[in-house]
Design goal:
With 315 residues, the protein is of the alpha+beta class. The protein is built from 8 helices and 11 strands. The strands form 2 sheets. Strands 1, 2, 3, 4, 5, 6, 7, 8 and 9 form a 9-stranded antiparallel sheet that branches.
């Protein structure tokens, strides 16, 4: 396994600390419970999710769970796909396609992929919710692994270290053909350090204090739902954005190649727009920013391909 590399390619100023903490919480991952749920067989998760997915309600429109335990956070969501299992497993087994998925998230500014012998990596540029040049982004490199079995596929994206002493970054996507239906599961996780844990508490007490999650924890005296708050709310929001990124990418594959990126952007925004807790920018700004970031991504990928070709010739 390659060591994780992470660096900031742009300036970092003390006055941007709270904003950086927001990036830490809202970026590529959500930190694993004391007993990580990815140890559970996907059939066990299916059994938990099936009653909700088969009979969605206003309170529980989908299966989603997030929590923070002893500086570890875990977010997990599950869904049914309309698309065939083979179509999804084939598409998401390709390293480069994950850059198309991850770019849909507000905090992803660009993504490139690389193969070095048996190692596969994704380099992800993280930033704020508005457009940022890759030179001003925080850069992390993740390892990419897949597993295929009969009626089962798994893609695992991991990094050992991150900013402020964070570690054990994971994005884990699984899909299986169960009882004739395509069932998917996504987990995002990381482990906080003492410093990043304190930084997270600072963020939720200041800039993020009004952020609401998706889970209904109670009702007020008028019968209106009270949603989760704090770090759990941030975890749920971030998880749902990745949930919609994967579904948007899968949905867009039905269109022509030239329309796929636009289709995925439209689908992602349509889905997030249903939840006011997820609103950050209007549609036109999101589309404008993402087209610019996609252009940057293509340029960075051409550069990465050129460097990889040179490395191959030197072997």
């Amino acid at each position: 396994m390659l060591p994780c590399s992470n660096k900031s390619t742009g300036p970092f100023h003390p006055k941007a600390f709270v904003g950086f903490v927001a990036l830490l919480l809202l970026g590529i991952t959500i930190p694993v419970t004391a007993k990580p749920k990815d140890t559970e067989n996907i059939l066990e998760v299916y059994a938990l999710a099936k009653p909700i997915l088969d009979n969605p309600t206003t309170d529980k429109p989908f299966y989603l769970h997030a929590e923070v335990v002893k500086r570890r956070q875990m977010g997990e969501a599950a869904l049914y796909f309309e698309q065939p299992f083979k179509e999804i497993s084939s598409s998401l087994s390709k390293l480069g396609n994950w850059c198309e998925v991850l770019l849909l998230h507000l905090n992803t500014k660009a993504c490139t992929h690389s193969r070095r012998k048996r190692d596969k990596t994704l380099t992800i540029y993280l930033g704020r919710k508005f457009y940022q040049d890759p030179d001003d982004a925080f850069v992390m490199t993740y390892n990419f692994e897949t597993e295929k079995k009969k009626d089962y596929f798994s893609a695992l994206i991991t990094a050992e270290d991150g900013p402020l002493g964070t570690s054990d970054y994971r994005i884990h996507f699984e899909v299986a053909l169960i009882n004739g239906r395509t069932f998917g599961r996504i987990q995002v996780s990381q482990k906080h350090s003492w410093l990043s844990s304190k930084a997270a508490k600072l963020y939720v007490a200041t800039k993020g204090r009004k952020k609401q999650g998706i889970s209904i924890v109670d009702y007020d005296e008028k019968g209106k739902p009270i949603y989760s708050s704090g770090e759990q709310a941030i975890a749920e929001r971030n998880l749902l954005r990745y949930y919609f990124a994967i579904t948007a990418y899968v949905y867009s594959q039905n269109g022509t190649r030239s329309d796929r990126f636009k289709d995925s952007l439209d689908y992602w925004y349509d889905q997030t727009e249903q939840y006011e807790q997820l609103y950050e920018v209007d549609r036109s700004q999101y589309m404008k920013d993402k087209y610019k970031e996609y252009k940057n991504q293509l340029g960075l990928q051409r550069l990465a391909d050129h460097e990889e070709l040179i490395a191959i010739k030197k072997r």
